[in-house]
Amino acid sequence: MRLAGPWIEAAHVQRVLAMLTAGGHQALLVGGCVRNAALGQPVSDIDIATDALPDRVTELARAAGLKPVPTGIEHGTVTVVADHIGHEITTFRRDVETHGRHATVAFSTRIEDDAARRDFTINALYARADGTVLDPLGQGLPDLAARHLRFVGTPEARICEDYLRILRFFRFTAWYGAPELGLDPDGLAACAVHADGIESLSRERVGTEMKKLLAAPDPAPALAAMQASGVLAHVLPGADARAIAPLVHLERGAAPDALRRLAALGGQDAPERLRLSKAEAKRLDRLREALADPAPDAVLGYRFGAVDARDALWVRAALMGQEMSPTSWQQVDFGAAQTFPVAARDLMPALQGAALGARLRALEDRWIASGFALSRAELLG
Length: 381
What we know:
The chain is α+β, with helices and mostly antiparallel strands.
């Protein structure tokens, strides 16, 4: 197989690869950029593997007029900036000891060693500057063609090198696996056995993986397997994946939204356990508040805005196993477009403080009960 496209032909990519090869070293694109390009999907990050040691990469970059940044020097990674774009260059590595959260590694000059320590076979693919794909393990290309997501070597060994790979197993299956294949049974069994290892991971890492999983086109099968295997309970106690498949059905081509799906998933202390940002936590709270609000659709639109109200109605319908009413969106949009016609200044100075707030709320309730029909004069009269 030979890859092509603007991403690999870009001057900055070729310049960095040429920098290494001109210095007498291997320079191979690796991982996600190769995988996605082979699948015809967009390529974002450019990762490069080489037999050059980090100091040598730094030396070559400076000699070529490029900027080396020691972003992960202890792991053998130097980011080389060309045309204001970062290219992560990592020396071939082999594992010598594992700790469950990370592995002690030694540098290597063999691509086979580097491939053997990667997580999944579809990520153990490399490409030369001309696009020629290398599959050192002989499994990556067949698995990619079959959309079969499986660990490199023994699942237990890969998981014990880094327990985050449990979550990556479900996330990558959701994004790249063939639905008809289901989840790799050996990988799933190993994830179940080592699920308690998730407790040792930082919540930032867990949250990042979960948000990526929830943003997949259809994460329902992977989440159902997470729940059945006991993994989900370690990530988010109390979460239930049963509403995810109905929600994906109801979304009908709408852009996937991780927080909308997280609201359907439920669970205890999601903002803390997944280290959500303040904005994400606030939106999740609004969605849950809207879910618990029994008001009509138009009132939900007024109280929460069109986007959050729609998301809450989708989640509510999924939880209840219902279809959406054709008029729901119209009602939500109608309510979201309304503006309460009375302002605090209309009641001042006669009312102040708590009395002013109570009167405003009473007038707003009356206006809402009228179907947003009462005018300012009618409310104040």
